[in-house]
Amino acid sequence: MAKQVVTRTYSASIRNQSRVSDDLDALGFAASKLWNVGRWTCSRIWDEIGHIPNHNELTTYLKNHERYDDLHSQSSQRVLQELAEAFGGWYGKRRNGDLRANPPGYRKRNDEHPRSTVTFKTAGFKLDTQYNRVRLSQGPNLKEYWSDFILCKFQTRPDVDLSTVENVQQVKAVWTGDEWELRFVCKVEIDVSESPGEKTVGIDLGINNFAALAYEDAHSELYPLNCLKQDDYYFSKRLARCDDSNSEQATRLNQKKSSRRTHYFHTLSKHIVQRCVEEDVGTIVIGDLSGIRKDDEDGESKNWGKHGNLDLHSWAFDRFTELLTYKAETEGITVEEVSERNTSKSCSCCGRKRDANRVERGLYVCEECGTTANADVNGAENIRQKVSPSSPNLSVNRSNGWLAQPSTFLFDTETSAFAPQEQVTS
């Protein structure tokens, strides 16, 4: 075992939600408005001189703007830093020939500003681990009466004790869609095992199968989304019967749904990491889904159909990847994110790209080389090959059907664990 300092993010619920939600709403709206001001400024500078301002230039330019003082100065800096990074990513794609890449958009939903995440750096918060409280600084424009902070009482998971963490670097206030929660970004020292091996596995996240895995030594696994779909429909019906979406009953239902989803993510990520240890995998390659909600052509939200939109927009892609990454770190496994562009269209055996090869949602047939595969497994293998192109067993074992007949693991509600499909009783 070796010691390693890593970054961890711990989520916490806010116990005095009703008392602080209005103040947090004001900060979330303020962050969106500042983003939009910065977005307009970047666009104007780009149109006039063909230059995208970096973080320091943007901060210098806007530090005297009235919207800048809606937040603590470090929180405002973080909003503009995220904007500059988003523009930098877009410009890098354009420079590399990706003319379909879209610049970051404005943060608006219809005519309203959405609640953006607000980040508080060390000077913007004061943590009291004895009483599980944190003071979050407000900007000069939002201070009321004598108070210049929001006092949040929080509750972490039972296995998380922030008093044992020496360095809490940031606190983030995040709107989950139902309520606000806190996320503490910390530096912690952990025991790290030696890497299990040098093999790779590709992971494709989709709207039907939550995860498809393609291993280097020619076998594959599927993790269907059935459990979360059932929860979505069950809780949607229960919430529809509530008289008020803000009622105590609705709040309890939303919290229970969120808790079940978080448990699912933790269980799945832990299971996948354990499978990687068993298979001597040292590198997990996962698709970067940061742009999955946007259409490549016009930048608008994709329409995946009634049920597809329900599934897609209720996922926490980043959250799952984050859980997978920190669980993998403790086992000495590296997680790499790569672009998913064209991985669903290309044949993982011959490389030919053709839209018509994807015959239907779950079936991929290549007319060039005759490969028949599960479409999600084919995508996972393409993702894996972006990091480890050579696959000596692939051509030899293609005929045995590993691409077309993956093993299926389901979440067993009785045991709260994943198991092969034939062993699941619930």
From TrEMBL:
Name this protein carries in UniProt: RNA-guided endonuclease InsQ/TnpB family protein
Domain Probable transposase IS891/IS1136/IS1341: 184-292
Keywords, comma-separated and alphabetical: DNA recombination, DNA-binding, Endonuclease, Hydrolase, Nuclease, Transposition
Domain Cas12f1-like TNB: 317-383
BP GO terms, sorted: DNA recombination; transposition
UniProt family annotation: In the N-terminal section; belongs to the transposase 2 family.
Organism superkingdom: Archaea
InterPro entries referenced in this protein's UniProt entry, alphabetically: Cas12f1-like_TNB (IPR010095), RNA-guided_DNA_endo/Transpos (IPR051399), Transposase (IPR001959)
An example molecular function term from Gene Ontology annotations: endonuclease activity
PANTHER family, sorted: RNA-GUIDED DNA ENDONUCLEASE RV2885C-RELATED, TRANSPOSASE
Species classification: Archaea, Methanobacteriati, Methanobacteriota, Stenosarchaea group, Halobacteria
One Pfam family per UniProt: OrfB_IS605
